[in-house]
Amino acid sequence: PGPDAHVGYGKIILLGEHSVVYGHHAIAAPIGLSVRAEATRTTSSAEPVIADWSVDGSLREPIREDISHRVAALITGRLGVPAAGLRVEVFSDLPRASGLGASAAFAVAVIRAVASRFDLRLSDAEVSNLAFECERIVHGTPSGIDNTVATFGRPVLFRKTDAAGGHEIHDIVTPYPIPVAIGLSGVHALTSQTVSLVRTAWQKNPARYDSIFAQIDALVLAGVDALRHGDIAELGELMNINQGLLNALQVSSPEIEQLVAIARRAGALGAKLTGGGGGGAMIAIAEPGGTEPIIAAMRRAGFATYLTELR
Ligand code: PMV
C-alpha cells in the first residue's frame, strides 16, 4: 500500500547526516511515529490556522505563529486553494526538535490534509517538493532527505543533486527486519543551528571538512551492501565509525555520547546520533532480540526510548 493520505512519516538517518547537505549519500528510513493532519474549511474570512495537537488531544508547544502563517500561505498558494477560513489540526506522536524529522513530517501531513480537503490529487513527488519548500522556511538549507522519507514512508538511499531540491533516491532492501533502538537525549536541538555550525567550519577549511564528508559517503555506500546482505555486524561498525566522524564535525553532545556508551555496553553492534545532532536522538542496532537490553539500559538511566524496525 502507498502512503496514507493524511500522514507524514518520522524518520531516522541510519548513515550520512550532515554530509548529505554537501551532495553526499545518506540512508534514511521511516519509524513507526508519524504526524497526521485534518483540514476543515469554515466560512470565516480569518487567516488560515494550523493548530498543533498531540495524539491525546492535549495542546503541545505550539509552532511559532509566523512560521505557521508562512507555511499555510505557501501551501495554499502553491495548491491554488483559498487560505481564508482554513483550519488544519495536527496530531503528532513524534517528539519535536529531536532529530526524527518532525518538521518535515508536519509539512507533509498538512499538505496532504489540505489537498484532500480540496479533492486535489497530488503525486508523492509533488507532495515531497512542496514539503521541501516548507522545510526551507523552517530550516534554511535542507538536503531534502527529511521531506523525501516523510512523504514516501520507505527506506531510501538519498543524494542531493542541486540546491533547488533535485535529488536521486533508490530503495533500500534488507533480507529481514533489523531492529533499531532509539534513545532521546531530552535535549532539544535545532537542526538549522548544527547545520550552520558545520557550514561555518567548512567555509573556514573546506579541504579538511570535504575529506570528512567523503569518508562518511564511503561508509554510507558500504552500508547499502551491509543492509542488502543483512550483515548487522558490518552495519554496526559503519555506524560506529560514522559517529566518530560526526563527533569530528562537533555535532555530538554529552547526552548523545552517554547514550552511545550505554547502548554499546548493553550489546549494541552500532550506535550513533541520528539527524541534526547537538542533542536530539541516538540510534543503536543489534542482532534480532538484542535490542531489549539496550532499551532497558537507556530507560534505567532515565532516557525516553522507542523501538522500531528497518524493513
Ligand atoms: O534533525 P533532522 O531530523 O531534521 O535531520 C537533519 C539531517 C541533516 O543532514 C543534518 C540536515 C539535512 O537537511 O539533511
From TrEMBL:
Q: Say which residues of the entire protein are included here.
A: 475 to 785 of 785
Taxonomic lineage is: Bacteria, Bacillati, Actinomycetota, Actinomycetes, Micrococcales
Q: Where is the GHMP kinase N-terminal domain?
A: 71-152
Q: Which family does it belong to?
A: Belongs to the HMG-CoA reductase family.
**Name of the protein described by the UniProt record:** 3-hydroxy-3-methylglutaryl coenzyme A reductase
Transmembrane regions listed in the UniProt entry: none
**Coiled coil location:** none
Q: Which residues form the GHMP kinase C-terminal domain?
A: 225-301
